[in-house]
Amino acid sequence: MSTKVFISWSGELSRKLAEALRSWLPATLQYVKPYFTPEDVEKGAKWNSEITKELETSNVGIICLTSDNTEKPWILFEAGALSKSIEKARVCTLLFNLEPTDLKGPLTSFQGTRFLKEDFKRLINTINNVAGDSKLDTVVLDSVFEMWWPKLDEQIADILANDGESKEEEKRSDRDILEEILELNRMNSTRNAHSTHVSRRAVGEILEFLEEMAFVIDHEHGDLGFSLHKRLERPMRHLCMAADAPDLFDRFRRRRERYQVELFAKENKCDEPELPSDGG
């Protein structure tokens, strides 16, 4: 039986590192079946179907972190989803040219692994320990790792050496993250405004994705998700009106109100007041 490893990434450098890991893992541990989505857009489009199914059946999650993606919205979103689908002890942040002290927020709660031989070997042990009947004996695992490690080490070193970024990017604030999400949403709104037809279904999928992201960010960053919702409210209203779907916007607002009540109740350990149903 295969051991499924979900590999999360964001950004071009992180993608190349994750792809190298995806190729190396099953060559070293033949029972491993990695899940790696090569395109950011494809990941977003498939979130509610393929990626959800993969998460539900994955045994281990690896989050590939570089200096320029530790606060990327997609990394934070997938990290939150991994923590809900896989035992937290089996979700690992893999740090490339980073130290655990460089991380902050929700990413600090996961098992941090620097891409150094001994650290990385502990990550391989974690994968091997959940392999069930396919698990390799310690002596065999040590031998296999010693044989295959130099190849991965050389490939990763080459990727990092050829990375176009010569200096570490400044860590972005929560405001910068919100600005990026807002700009993406504005681009979608502008393109749809010039179209002769705006798909109600597409708008519904965008709203559903935003609700999921805001919900995850709420749990990891407190009021950040609520701020995100407020910033997106106006452009989303215009988009819903263009799609002749005011009911979708009303549902969006009511669901956010419910999320806020649920979070408040959880933080204050009190019963949740009843809110009107959103009908969906």
Automatic annotation (TrEMBL):
Record has Ribosomal protein as a keyword: no
Residues spanning the membrane: none
Domain TIR: 5-116
Record InterPro entries: TIR_dom, Toll_tir_struct_dom_sf
The keyword Glycoprotein belongs to this UniProt entry's keyword annotation: no
Record-linked Gene3D superfamilies: Toll/interleukin-1 receptor homology (TIR) domain
Official protein name in the record: Toll/interleukin-1 receptor domain-containing protein
